[in-house]
Each structure stands twice: as structure tokens, then as C-alpha cells.
Amino acid sequence: MTSTSLEAAHLVVPTSRDEAVKAFGDGSDVTVFGGGTILMPEINYGRLKPARVLMLGSAELSGIGSNGSGLTIGAMTTVAELEDAPEPLGSAARNVADHEVRAQATLGGNLCAPSGGGTPRGDLQAALIALAATVTTAGKDGERSELVEDFIAAGADGRLVLEVELHEPKRSGYAAARRPHAHAYTILAVCAAETSEGVRVGISGAGANALRARHVEDAFSGGASVEDAAQKVVDDAQPHDDALASAWYRQRLLPVLVRRALDDLGGSQ
User: Fold this and answer.
1) 100/102 Cα distance (integer angstroms)
2) Contact 187, 179 (CB under 8 A)
3) What is the per-residue pLDDT for 267?
4) Domain 1-60 has CATH 3.90.190.20
5) What is the pLDDT of residue 1?
6) How far is CA 37 from CA 34, 40, 53, 78, in A?
7) What confidence score (pLDDT) does residue 237 get?
8) In the chain, what are the domain boundaries?
9) Distance CA 5, CA 45 (A)
10) Would you call 158 exposed, middle or buried from its count of C-beta atoms within 10 A (0-12, 13-18, 19+)?
11) How far is the C-alpha of 78 from the C-alpha of 37, rounded, in Å?
12) How far is it, in rounded angstroms, from Cα 76 to Cα 112?
């Protein structure tokens, strides 16, 4: 199956944010096309045959701006443009796939990335959770803003990502595991950041989507040692087997990565 499935679809090409929101409507029967790094393989292999496609390339939803107290990042901003973003987002972006993918993949697509079945997706999600980022979306009930972890937990169905807002943390930490044979997928990543609300920890690769390690946060903020706080991650994550690594491997590696991220956090004072 080739891209003729996309050529046969009805393409909608909005030229502004308002046009994109209007065209998206309540999200029913609409396939959103951002960078296409996830969508095109699904179409090419015949797993997805969209009837109506919303092409966001000209919708003026890209770019990074400062609002005085933080940064606002458009949904169509590429991963490559985020490589110099505040940590740990910058490190997460630099470790996504390869140069070609980073130049094409978008922030919005990464946030909405479904589980790949055999591989985890959404490498930026853990960093955005750690940074207490908020995401603004549009849907049948209008626009709303919510914490990234709440958006991820609720699922992206029926919502069009417009932008993400975040503040630079006081300190940050990042630790990840990758393997050459894993085709540049990140097996596990742990992101930590000290925000105005305290230390937050996000994890990707330990489930279908990224998650917030609240037990680790509570232990660390309660005065536990880095080693003891890191062990609490077993109460937050339930890793599973996939094409990259076994649940057994992830279960044993997670505390190590959490410790490294928290050590990094402490070392950046």
C-alpha cells in the first residue's frame, strides 16, 4: 500500500489557528496530519485509510515564544527546534530517533502519539510532565488548558493540540537507556525538574504513555535519600514486555535511571 490512500482522502488545509479549530470541530471523522512520522507508515502499510485529513503545516501553529513568565510552544513546532529548549526537554528532544525524524516530527504529534504496540512512543512526554507543562487543546467543548499528565491520561481522542506552555525549572535531571539495535527508540527515560511546586519526575517507556512518578516525588520531598526515593518507582510504574526490552529488564533498570536523574538534579545546584 502506498500513499495513494492519503491522495484519495479529502484534504483540509487551514491557514490559521482559527481555521484549524473550526475544521477540526469535535474531532469526529478527522485524521490530524502534523509531521507525518507516525501517520505515514500507518497509511503506507494500509493500517489506516483516512477519509478526511486535517493538514496543519500552514495553520500557523509552530514556533517558540516567550510570554514574560514562561515559554509557549506551538503544536507544529518540530522536535529539532526543541533541542535547545529548557532542560530536561532539550535532552529528551535530542534523543528522539534520528536527524531526519526530528526535523519532521512535531510536538503535538509526540504528545498524541499512541502506543506503537511493539514499541513505546512519545519521548517528550516525560520531560513535559516533569516541567509541569500545560497543554491547550480544542474540541467539542471549546478550548481548554490542563496539565500534560492529565491530557495524556484522558487520551487525545476528540482534542486538537494547539500549544504547550512551560516555565524554566530551577534545576533539572535526565537519564535514559538506549540500544543500537533498538532503531533509535528510547527504551526508558526519566526526567526530573524542580518547579515552583517542588520536584516532579516523569517517566517514559514504562507504559503505553509517559507517567508521573508521584511516589518518588513524595519520598524525595519528604527527605528520603536519593537511593530510597528511587526505589519507590516500583510503586509508580508497571513495565511490560515489548519489542525493545522485557518488563524484567525495565523493572530493574528504572530505579537506576531515577537515581541518576535525581543525582543530576542535585548536581545542578
Assistant:
1) 6
2) yes
3) 46
4) no
5) 34
6) 8, 6, 15, 11
7) 93
8) 1-60, 171-267
9) 10
10) middle
11) 11
12) 12
Of 176, 1, 174, 163, give the one whose Cα is nearest residue 70: 163
Q: Which residues is 139 bridged to in the sheet?
A: 142
3-class secondary structure for the chain? Answer: CCCHHHHCCEEECCCCHHHHHHHHCCCCCCEEECCCCCHHHHHHCCCCCCCEEEECCCCCCCCEEECCCCEEEECCCECHHHCCCCCCHHHHHHCCCCHHHHHHCEHHHHHCCCCCCCCCCCCCHHHHHHCCCEEEEEECCEEEEEEHHHHHHHCCCCCEEEEEEECCCCEEEEEEEECHHHCCCEEEEEEEEEECCEEEEEEECCCCCCEECHHHHHHHHCCCCHHHHHHHHHHCCCCCCCCCCCHHHHHHHHHHHHHHHHHHHHHCC
> What is the full per-residue pLDDT of the chain (269 aa) written as tens digits?
344 567 778 999 999 999 999 999 999 999 999 999 988 988 988 888 999 999 999 999 999 999 778 999 999 999 999 999 999 999 999 999 889 999 999 999 999 987 665 566 789 999 999 999 999 999 999 999 999 999 999 988 999 999 999 999 999 999 999 876 555 678 899 999 999 999 999 999 998 789 999 999 999 999 999 999 999 999 999 898 888 889 999 999 999 999 999 999 874 43
Distance CA 88, CA 94 (A): 10
**C-alpha cell of residue 220:** 524525595
pTM of this prediction?
0.93
Length of the chain: 269
Identify the CATH number of the domain defined by range 171-267: 3.30.390.50
- Which residues are paired to 193 by β-bridges? 172, 200
pLDDT at 115: 67
